[in-house]
Structures are given as C-alpha cells and as structure tokens.
Amino acid sequence: MERIEKFIDNLPSMDLMRSEKMTLVQLIIPVESAHRAISYLGELGLLQFRDLNSDKSPFQRTFVNQVKRCGEMSRKLRFFKDQISKAGLLSSVHPVVEPDLELEELEIQLAEHEHELIEMNANSEKLRQTYNELLEFKLVLQKACGFLLPSSNLAGIEERELSENVFSNDDYVETSSLLEQEMRPADQSGLRFMSGIICKSKALRFERMLFRATRGNMLFNQAPADEEIMDPLTGEMVEKTVFVVHFSGEQARTKILKICEAFGAKCYPVPDDISKQRQITREVSSHLSDLETTLDTGIRHRNKALTSIGYHLTQWMSMVRREKAVYDTLNMLNFDVTKKCLVGEGWCPIFAKAQMQEALQRATFDSNSQVGIIFHVMDAVESPPTYFRTNHFTNAYQEIVDAYGVARYQEANPAVYTVITFPFLFAVMFGDWGHGICLLLGALVLIARESRLSTQKLGSFMEMLFGGRYVLLLMSLFSIYCGLIYNEFFSVPFHIFGGSAYKCRDATCSDAQTAGLIKFRDPYPFGVDPSWRGSRSELPFLNSLKMKMSILLGVTQMNLGITLSYFNARFFRSSLDIRYQFVPQMIFLNSLFGYLSLLIIIKWCTGSQADLYHVMIYMFLSPTDDLGDNELFWGQRALQIVLLLLALVAVPWMLFPKPFILKKLHSERFQGRTYGLLGTSEFDLDLEPDSARQHHEEFNFSEVFVHQMIHSIEFVLGAVSNTASYLRLWALSLAHSELSTVFYEKVLLLAWGYDSFIIRLIGLAVFAFATAFILLMMETLSAFLHALRLHWVEFQNKFYHGDGYKFKPFSFALITDEDD
User: Fold this and answer.
1) 251/248 Cα distance (integer angstroms)
2) Which of 199, 237, 230 is nearest to 292 (CA)?
3) What residues have CB less than 8 Å from 15, skipping those under 6 apart?
4) Rounded to whole angstroms, what are the CA distances from 98 to 107, 239, 539?
5) How buried is residue 341: exposed, middle or buried, by Cβ count under 10 Å (0-12/13-18/19+)?
6) Longest C-alpha distance within the chain, in Å?
7) DSSP characters over 733-770
8) Which of 745, 750, 743 is closest to 768 using CA atoms?
9) Which carries the bigger pLDDT value, residue 623 or residue 11?
10) SS3 of 243, please?
11) Among 180, 263, 264, 249, which residue's Cα sits nearest to residue 214?
12) Cα separation of 643 and 637, whole Å?
C-alpha cells in the first residue's frame, strides 16, 4: 500500500487536473505611479483585485470624476459610431495609431468633433426640411393643376392674385411653410378649394374625417405623388398623396385647416391661372436645384469629417475603455491620505508572482517615482478563486463543466476526462459514420475559418456553434468510429472489413427473414456483421448488444467518478472520506452492478444462454437457491451471497461512523485533549492557529448526521437510478438507427421505385431535408443534451462539489464593447 501511495505521489502533476495554486497579495502603490502600475497589470491580466471599498457607493469613491469623464467620452464615441453607421461609412480596419495621446487631449478633440457634427447635423436638418417643403409644393403644383384646369376654363377668369410676398420674395426658402395662408382671397360666399399633401397611409382616414366634419359638403380629389419624400426624423422614404378639397364657407375652411394640422397634412396655395402656375413651378424648381447643390456639398463635408474620425475611432474607443477600466480598478483600492498611497489586495497565480513584480518595477521606473511599489504575500482566510489555464481546444470542455458549477479550489477537474468521455457517449447515441462525416465537414469548415470568424460579431446560435467547434470535431470523429462498429452509413450496412460470417440456407434466400441465416465462417472482424440488417433477429440482437454495452459504459464511468473522489480526499488529506465514503461506495456499487458487468462479459465470452434478469432478481429474493441453467461459472452462488452481504454492510458503513467520529474529534478538541492528527476536509482550517475559523460555530451532531444520512441514501438509490439512466445510450442509439432506416426505406427507396424523375427528385429532397434537419440537427441536439446529463448528474455527483468561484483577473484583453 505504501509503495502505491509513493508511486501516486511521484506522478507528474497535470495542469488541467487541479486548478492553479493561488496566493493573496497586497500592493502598496504611491499615488504618482498608481495609474501606470494598474495599466501594466491590466496588460499582464493575472491579478484579480478585491474591492476594499464595497461599503461605499460609486459616487463616494476616489476616482469617481475620472470615471464620469470616461463615461462621457464613451457616449461621444458611441455617437460618432452611430453617425458613421447612418452615413453608410465603415470604420477603418487598420486604424491610424496616434502615439502618446493623453486622455485630456482626447477629451478636447472629442468635444470639438461632437460640436462640429451637431452643428452640421442641425444645418443639414434645416436644409432637408426646406427641401422637402419645396419638393412637396412642386408635387402639389403638378397634381393639383390637373384637378383645377377644367374649372379655370369656365366663365371669364377673374384674376386672383396670390400673396406677393410668397413668390416674389427672395427669402422664400425660409418662409415656405404656407399652412396659415388663405387659399383664394375671393368673396367669402363662393366655392373655394384647398390643396396640400399627406402621407399615403393616412389619406383614407383623412378623407373620412373631412366628410364627417363638413357633413358631406365637400369634394375630395387625390392623386399619388410621383416621388417619395425623405422623413427627416427617421431618414426613410415615405409615399405621399396630393389632395384638393373643394368647399364653401369660412366655417368649413377653419375645420379643414384643423383637421390638416391634426393629420400632419401640409397645405400649399395653387393659383388658377396657368401662366402663374408655370412661373411658380419654375421658381420652385430653381430653388430645389440650389438646395440640392447645397445639400450635396454639406453631405460631402460631413462624410469627410466622419471619415477622418473613423480612422481613429477604434483606437479612441479602445483607449477610453482601458482608461475607464483602470479608474474602476483604482476605485477598488483603499486610498491612504496620510501616506499618499493606494493599498490594494488581490488573488494571483503563484507562477505569475515574478511577472507581476517585474511589471510593478517597470511602472515605478516609467513614472519616475522616488518610492517603489511594495508587493508582498498575505495569509488568506477565504477560499481562493479557481483558475484553469486552457487553450482553444480545452476551453469548450471546461465551459461545459463550469456550466454545472465552477470547481472548488484545487478540486479534481472533470474536464480532463470530459474531453474524451463526452464526445464518446454522444457518439454511442449518434453512431452513424455517414452522419458523422457530415458533422466532421461542418467542424472542419469552422476550424478552417477560425481566424476570420473569431474577429467577427456572430449571432447567438453561430457563436455557440463556433465556440464548440472542437467539441463538434471530436463528436464527429467518435460518431464515425461508433458508426463503423454499428456498421451504419445513413442506416445502410457495408461489407467494409470483409465478407459476412453468415449465408442463406438456399440460393433464393427466401426464408432469410423467417428461418434466419446459418454461420459458415469466422465472425466479422470489426463491428456488427452486415447480414444482421433485415434479418429475423436483427432487433433482439442489437437491443441486447446496446443495452449491455450501455450498462458496461455506465458502471465504468461511475467507478471513475468514485475513484476521483479518492484522489480528492487524498489531496485534501481527508482520511475520513477515504475510509467511510470511498471504500463503502466502491464496495456497494461493484457488489451489485460491477458483478452484473462481470456476468455480461462472461456471457459474451462463453456464449452462455443464461438469463441475467433472473440471476440479478433472485440474487436478492432467494440467494441460496440453485442457479440451474443460469450458472455461468463455478462458485457463482457463494460469490453472490458474499457480494450481497458486502452491499448490505456498506450502507451502515457509509452512514454511521463518520458523524460519530466527527463528534468525538470535536469534543476532544474543546476539552483540550491531545490526540493524533486526523486531517479532515471539514476541519483543515481549524487546525491552523491563525485561521479565521478559530471561533468555529457550535458542532451540531443532528445536522451532521442528517446530512450524512441524506448523502448515503442518495448514493444507494442513485446507484440504481444512475445505472438505469445510462440505458438512454441504448434507447437513443436505437431511435437514431430506426429513424434513419425509416427515412431511407420509406422515403428514398419508395420514391426510387417509381419511373418518374419528378417523384424521385421529390423523394431525394424529402430525404435530404429529413436527414439535415431531423437527424443532423434535432438528433444531434438530443444526443448532446443526454450526454450532458450523464456527465453532470451520473458522473460528476460522485466526486464534484462545484461550489467554487471563477478567477476573473483585471485584464484589458477581457474588456468587450458591452463594457462601454
């Protein structure tokens, strides 16, 4: 035993098996070098600061004004980004680097650019509004004249002059809103009209309102405008409708004006005389031409200014984000007014201590500080954060484990084994090497475009798929492997590894599915013999194979989980957990389900016809009875009795000793007795004289006993339910195989039985759709979730606590756009 322990202790440590060793450090930083020191630590990204001002609100902290300034600059930069996006321009992919730009200089530049842009936007909005009004007036003149032309040729045309200041004044551009002007200054009792323009979507409701308001005493004409007009608020093109309303009386005119104002319709005066209409149209067209030139010039000038901002926008946004992050971190430090220094605390990996000290020395030198930064290690009271160094390949598997719960500090990491077991269990349920090749192609595309996709902003689904590209790669490779074992290519078997070991009884093979086949050579060398497909005993054979295989895989993985609990207990020097949890759990699980796995292997090797259901049931009901034909080996009955007794003994072994030993240790400790050190995970911190747990809460025996009883009952019942849960491997594998068979035989082969090309094409399309969306998407998701369940519940609950917290260092590399 001692040799085994020495061998285990001498094994090289695995980087991913245990989290990095962490240490609590304290920094005492002079004020003049604080900003630079925090910036250098942010570039290093290996120190998680503790908030020493958690009792203060954000407005009571030292650097609140600097944070506000950075927030205001972030707002201006977002404004610039929105303006560039609205203008249809792109920020420079390779931004111009401005060396040594100070935050104050950037603040002044941003204020100047913002003022310039706001002024240009205001001028452009005024010009656009005037242009829209003139364009609307032009459209009204074009359409309304068609309605008024017949009446103008009637009885002697009486001159009706429009207001001279409207058309002869050079300042028409500024006074072209003509809503309140009288349409026809004629006698108050004759027939009059009002012309204008309204949004097309409001025209029908507008007409109904006019009809009700005038009680039908009006004539409404409308025609769609030839051009769409830009809405200055939204920037979208809006369809308009020109209208002319004929009415009589001043009261009706007042009502119509109010309705026009309520519906947002604009009214424009149209003269009766054709010559005046043409003259006004020419004047309006001239003004429009001038305004178009002015607007184009303004847009070019604005785009030029936005382009120059776009060259530096990426660098400015990065700089402001970094500065804000630095000041947010400085606000977590304690400011000592008397000594003019900042005191900070944080967690860092032990391997990073030398790098941090070098960065702090560099900060002291670069800031020309007369006093150096003090860096020293502190004694920690609380548990350190958990930090695993991962790469592109292992990160996705670590995220799968962390989604269940972050590992306790220095706890055994399930991700080490999840790298292999997760895609393998997925493949057991998904096994088809045709479908596996499809998944492999998708994974290879994502990996080949990794450098480009990693810099793009992806959708939620695509981002999840890209993050799990290496999980998808191993899932596809294992699916191909399991598909070759099942001998399924889109549910079709192939003679890849040689000929079948079976043949028909006669040349016609007419009774192959009824009487079965006969064996005439050695077994098929790899995987399932292709002759099983379509035979009389195909389903019973595959069901038996996959069900027994599921039990073997489940018992193996659960044993792995219990074994890892031993390594956890050994690492934390908890002999109680080894003696009264690991040992009885191993005995109980393997006395029942380990024995069942042994029977399965013996039955496979010997070809026995023993009924394993009968063996396991009567092992409990009548263990002393003769097994008869179900006996697989000599001494089986005696072995079953011994295993049953061991399983019964293991239950109280798990339940009773540990709570009473903990109670004895507690009573001896507080009575001042000396005793041999028996390290336990529950009392490790109490053994340290400077521990914060020196004043431990009163030992509650009933609470400890109930907790141990729940844990024992959960394991006993879980051993049965978890083993049964692994049968989902058999169920989903069977479902996937049968679905593939149905789509192949009832869709593709059925369509191929017709001579019509169209029917074959439709059958092929339906088969491709079913394969892509049902078998490759829904079945992949289903198998993924079931594999996730098996790891989170059946595997990890044997050893994994998952109640730690993740190491979140202050790092510029982790700052994202959302942090603005």
Assistant:
1) 8
2) 230
3) 388, 389
4) 14, 47, 72
5) buried
6) 130
7) HHHHHHHHHHHIIIIIIHHHTSS-HHHHHHHHHHHHHI
8) 743
9) 623
10) strand
11) 249
12) 10
Percent of the chain scoring above 90 in pLDDT: 49
Per-residue pLDDT tens over the stretch 92-150 = 555 555 556 788 899 999 999 999 999 998 998 888 888 888 888 888 888 877 776 55
Whether 471 contacts 422, CB under 8 Å: yes
Q: What is the DSSP string of 329-361?
A: HHTTSEEETTTTEEEEEEEEEGGGHHHHHHHHH
| Separation between Cα atoms, residue 534 and residue 77, nearest integer Å | 68
pTM for the complete prediction? 0.78
Angle between helical axes of 612-621 and 636-655 (0-180°, round to 10): 60
On whether the CB atoms of residues 737 and 486 are closer than 8 A, the answer is: yes
Where does the pLDDT of residue 817 fall: very low under 50, low under 70, confident under 90, or very high at 90 and above? low
Contact predicate 514/495, CB 8 Å: no
Residue 818 DSSP class? G
Pairing of strands 341-349, 334-336: antiparallel
Residue 189: phi and psi, rounded to 5, are: -105, -10
Give me the amino acid identity at 279. Q
In contact, 645 and 591? CB cutoff 8 Å: no
For 356, the token pair is: 């941090």
Give 13 or 106, the one with higher predicted confidence: 106
In single-letter form, the type of residue at position 125 comes to: E
Q: Report the amino acid identity of residue 106.
A: L
Stated length of the chain: 820
Report which residue type is found at 461: F
Q: Are strands 502-503 and 518-519 parallel, antiparallel or unpaired?
A: antiparallel
CA 797, CA 791: separation in Å to the nearest integer? 9
Q: Residues 751, 757, 761, 767: what is their CA dihedral angle, to the nearest 10 degrees? A: 20
Contact 19, 413 (CB under 8 A): yes
List Cα–Cα distances, 88 to 81, 84, 236, 720, in angstroms: 11, 6, 14, 63
Residue type, 143: K
Q: Which residues contact 21 (CB under 8 A, 6 or more apart)?
A: 349, 350, 410
